[in-house]
User: Which sequence fits this backbone?
């Protein structure tokens, strides 16, 4: 048993007050801890302490956190990481607020990922006993939880293999140059559980260490339009959508936070399974993969990363 | 009224008080390369040739490195003119928008242009914006960019 899901995204923002407003008032996440220049947020339907951490200073991603089911899984991942050949270090309980001990790993693409087994349990906003279907006091988009992150890398093949070999993720979708080169990933979508993906990678010059986006999960297409309406009211810059991806079938809007980090609201992708044949996209069909409806190649999708 | 002159185009735009270069450009029905519109992605880089600007928010080092600021490169979406300014914009007609497709399907990248000339194609989105060092006439003041907020 490996990693069960993406647990947290820890990003840099240039202005903590503007970021707080965006992620609580527009996205509708709840603030669970305010340390001044670092704040911790949670979606209404998440049960662990936090899933988004905002830290003032710069832009981009600091690290991602992935949760395993049992403490013993950490040792397993440590051994596999060392066999694989990446740099690891142990992290202690409490190094991250309300988070257990675990392992810190530097990916070949330079990103830092942390693996942990436990976090303080706060519970969903609707509780676990005879719950209502959503909380009465939703704010803005009212996103229930995070969904995935897409990271950039100059060369992603080794990092893709890290996620399958060490995290026991499976390949959901992959972008390849053409059908004669199906083993060469230009972009890759990988999952641990039933989400369409818990992590994705995209290749490009100068991409190492960068964040393409992280996503919030919404229920359905109505929620996506509603999210767009809230973004209009809050003057949020939108890049693409409301539309649907060919890749993952997710309904989507790509937009930017006040620091320029890209976010996504993502709904209704299919349920992934380990034994599902991997979907392949050839590079000449990238436009259909990103924006299935318009099939227009976005100018900024592959050039704006933080 | 404050003016923004766009070098090499004959365009002189009238800027409202406190609006960013991007705001003025859009109001004039024009478009520049841009993505996040929040000073984080660096795509709206322009070259300040005359005059001064200030940023209406913190612009971090990653989005606009010091070596670019030093030669007058600024971000249009955060820069507010302090008085009349002149800017130069990168070549816009043909540009790389998905690097992984270009490297798949192209022969080696175009030869580097001679010093001082902007390349015909902005080949890599993270490449430097060309610096128009030879555009200043004798005795003209060098352009400065002054950030009002602290830069991260």
Assistant:
């Amino acid at each position: 048993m490996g990693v069960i899901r993406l647990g947290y995204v820890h990003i840099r923002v240039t202005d903590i007050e503007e970021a707080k407003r965006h992620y609580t008032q527009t996205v509708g996440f709840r603030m669970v801890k305010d340390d001044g220049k670092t704040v911790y947020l949670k979606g209404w339907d998440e049960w662990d302490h936090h899933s988004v951490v905002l830290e003032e200073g710069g832009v981009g991603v600091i690290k991602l956190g992935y949760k395993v089911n049992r403490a013993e899984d950490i040792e397993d991942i440590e051994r596999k990481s060392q066999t694989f050949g990446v740099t690891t270090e142990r992290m202690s309980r409490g190094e991250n607020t309300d988070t257990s001990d675990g392992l810190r790993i530097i990916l070949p693409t330079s990103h830092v990922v942390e693996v942990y087994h436990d976090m303080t349990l706060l519970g969903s906003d609707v509780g676990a006993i005879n719950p209502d279907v959503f909380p009465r006091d939703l704010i803005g988009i009212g996103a229930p939880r995070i969904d995935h992150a897409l990271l950039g890398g100059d060369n992603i093949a080794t990092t893709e293999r890290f996620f399958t070999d060490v995290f026991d993720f499976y390949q959901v979708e992959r972008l390849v140059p053409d059908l004669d080169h199906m083993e060469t990933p230009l972009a890759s979508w990988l999952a641990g559980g039933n989400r369409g993906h818990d992590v994705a990678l995209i290749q490009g010059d100068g991409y190492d260490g960068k964040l393409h986006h992280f996503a919030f999960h919404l229920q359905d297409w109505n929620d996506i339009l509603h999210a767009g309406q809230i973004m209009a009211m809050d003057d949020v810059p939108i890049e693409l959508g409301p539309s649907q991806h060919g890749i993952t079938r997710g309904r989507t809007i790509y937009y930017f936070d006040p620091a320029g980090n890209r976010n996504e609201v993502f709904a209704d992708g299919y349920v992934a399974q380990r034994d599902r044949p991997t979907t392949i996209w050839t590079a000449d069909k990238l436009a259909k993969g990103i924006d299935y409806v318009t099939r227009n190649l976005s100018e900024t999708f592959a050039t704006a990363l933080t | 009224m404050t003016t923004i002159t766009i070098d090499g185009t004959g365009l002189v735009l009238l800027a409202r008080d406190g609006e960013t270069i991007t705001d003025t450009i859009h109001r004039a029905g024009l478009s520049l390369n841009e993505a996040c519109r929040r000073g984080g992605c660096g795509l709206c880089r322009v070259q300040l040739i005359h005059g001064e600007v200030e940023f209406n928010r913190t612009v971090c080092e990653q989005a606009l490195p010091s070596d670019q600021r030093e030669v007058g490169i600024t971000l249009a979406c955060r820069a507010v003119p302090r008085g009349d300014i002149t800017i130069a914009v990168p070549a816009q007609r043909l540009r790389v928008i998905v690097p992984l497709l270009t490297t798949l399907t192209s022969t080696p990248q175009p030869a580097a242009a001679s010093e001082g000339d902007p390349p015909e194609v902005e080949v890599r989105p993270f490449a430097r914006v060309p610096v128009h060092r030879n555009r200043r006439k004798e005795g003209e003041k060098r352009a400065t960019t002054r950030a009002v907020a602290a830069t991260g």
User: Anything to note?
Assistant: Chain B is about 10% helix and 25% strand. Confidence is low (pLDDT under 50) at residues 111-152 of chain B. Chain B touches chain A at residues 33-41, 43, 57-63, 95-101, 103-104, 124-126, 152 (CB under 8 Å).
